[in-house]
Amino acid sequence: MNCRQWLSLFTALCLAAALSSCGSTDTDEAAQFFLRGNVQLQKREYKEAIRFYSEAINKKSDFADAYSNRGLAKFRDGQPDAALADYSKAIETDKAFGTAYFNRADTYLTLGKAQSALTDLLTIQKTYQDSTFYQSRLGEAYAGLNNLPMAQAAFDKAILLDANNVEALTNRAALFFSLKQYSDARSDIDKALTINPNQAEAWNNKSLLLAREKKYVEALAAVDKALNQTANQPFYLNNKGYLLLMLNRDAEALPLLNQSIRLNDQNAWAHRNLGVYWLRQKKASDALAALKRAEQLDPSVDKLYVYLGEAQQLAGNKTAACDAWSRGKIAGDTEATALVTQFCP
């Protein structure tokens, strides 16, 4: 079983045998194509798997397992929207198909659709609530909806069910980090990396902890380990760009920040960091554009109003600078508060 999306080959083999026993030539052929698809899926030959599953569906149009497994192959082939369509067809064909609900929820999470994911997960809760992988996804869905108490409860249960669930440990660490419970975050990250030294998200989270301690060289090495596992992950690219800025390697940072935004233009942190880059280049208008975009996406981003005020100050807009720092003061930013005291009447 893959911890990211589920496929039960035992169930698939039994199903294929049952279909073959039905006697229809088309059904027999559908079963054979289905088994061939499973072989290719296990070999990570996703396009071939998709082809065989499609042949199975052509022979048996209500073949729910073939739709579900074709969805899994499409997901792993980088086609999440097409995967969603197949999972939905599998569920339409068999409304009690728990694996299809789980995999569709997982795909929704990948696409940032936390509410849709939660709806699917709650549909199968009675059956899967004692699965550590189910609880991990439930935690991710709640975290995506900013329901942090429910997210932590789900991650806690996932880890109670399996103390070596690396994804749950990593996700709970990210939750602890957002709650400023840094010691708890560090404990979960260190345990996750002991279990799986190749867990990309854990390395990225470790880099965030190190950056907070201003250990930028060590943090850069950690995020590079994350990128070695997942080269084009936009959050990792943004994190590396920020660290390069902190190490005064601005020219190296810019292409990473731009690439991160191209891959995901909804990440407020990446726009903030791009604003920091333009601030360092003394380009007020470019800095303001990036920082205002960050504010539109998420005004709670750390030090956003400090930088926004600095950009307004650079542009010669003292009143606007003080307004930005005042908003930061209201949000509890001590650095913004100090700037208000220093520069604003």
UniProtKB/TrEMBL annotation:
InterPro entries: TPR-like_helical_dom_sf, TPR_rpt, Ycf3. PROSITE patterns: PROKAR_LIPOPROTEIN, TPR. It comes from the Bacteria. Residues 1-23 form the signal peptide. TPR repeats lie at residues 30-63, 64-97, 132-165, 166-199, 268-301. SUPFAM superfamilies: TPR-like (SSF48452). Keywords: Repeat, Signal, TPR repeat. Pfam families: TPR_1, TPR_11, TPR_16, TPR_8. PANTHER family: TETRATRICOPEPTIDE REPEAT PROTEIN 6 (PTHR44858), UDP-N-ACETYLGLUCOSAMINE--PEPTIDE N-ACETYLGLUCOSAMINYLTRANSFERASE SPINDLY-RELATED (PTHR44858:SF1). This is Tetratricopeptide repeat protein. It comes from Fibrella forsythiae.
